Amino acid sequence: MNNIDIYLLIIVNVFFFMSGYLFASKCNQNSSYHMPFTANKTEKKQVEQNRIIEKVKLIDINESKVIIDTDTSVLEKKFENLGEDKHVNENIESSISKLSQIMKGK
Amino acid sequence: MSKGLDVGTSFIVLSKQVAHDTIAYKDFRDAFYVLSPTNPIASKMIEKGLKGKIFVKDTDGSFIILGQDAIEKALEKNESAKRPMYRGIISAKEKDSKKVLSFILKEVVGKPSEPGEKLVFCVPAQPIDQTDEDFDVSYHEDVVKSVLASCGYSPKSINEAEALCYGELEEDDYTGIGLSWGAGMVNTCIMLNGESVLTFSTTKSGDWIDHMSAIAVSEPDGVVQVEKENSKFKVGESNNSPILSAVSAYYERLIDYTSKQLAVALSESKSLPRFKQPLTIVVAGGTSQADGFVEMFEKKLKENKFPLHIKKVKQAEDPLHAVSKGCLIASMVL
Question: Does A60 touch chain B (CB under 8 A)?
Answer without folding.
Answer: no
